[in-house]
Automatic annotation (TrEMBL):
Species annotation: Owenia fusiformis
Record-linked PANTHER family: PHD-TYPE DOMAIN-CONTAINING PROTEIN
SUPFAM superfamilies: Cysteine proteinases, FYVE/PHD zinc finger
Protein known as: Ubiquitin-like protease family profile domain-containing protein
Length: 135
């Protein structure tokens, strides 16, 4: 089974229930300009974020959001975490992208473990069961 790792960095948390879009744009901008560095922490100047975004949209030019200086930096105590996403289909895309179908071949010695996305499937239907090209 192939897989890829998803890294969820420890990041600054918003202090309300309505700035999630603003923080998403700020972090994506930071990522696009500076990439992802597992060891560095970015903390934005929350009071300046909204006006900065409005300015970027008005000027039609996205630039990095204002960040706190090292002296004022308050780091999140949440650790960076990683999890794996499985890729059973030979196309290499994640299994969570769409419905998966599997070969239903079973013998006394072997059960096929081949899975495909529906759109990638080359399974043939034989009496209501699906079989991969190997079976």
């Amino acid at each position: 089974v192939n897989h890829f790792d998803v890294i969820i960095p420890a990041v600054q948390k918003q202090n309300n229930g309505y700035d999630c879009g603003l923080f998403s744009i700020a972090f994506m901008t930071e990522f696009c300009f500076n990439g992802f560095n597992r060891t560095s922490r970015v903390v934005f100047e929350e009071k300046e974020m909204r006006s900065h975004l409005v300015s970027c949209l008005t000027e039609k030019k996205i630039i990095p959001f204002p960040k706190q200086t090292k002296k004022k930096l308050k780091l999140s105590k949440v650790a960076t975490s990683t999890f794996q996403v499985s890729c059973f289909c030979p196309c290499g895309q994640a299994d969570v992208v769409q419905d998966m179908v599997g070969c239903e071949f079973v013998s006394k010695k072997h059960e096929c473990q081949t899975w495909y996305h529906k759109k990638c499937s080359k399974l043939k239907k034989v009496s209501k069961k699906m079989y991969c090209p190997d079976h």
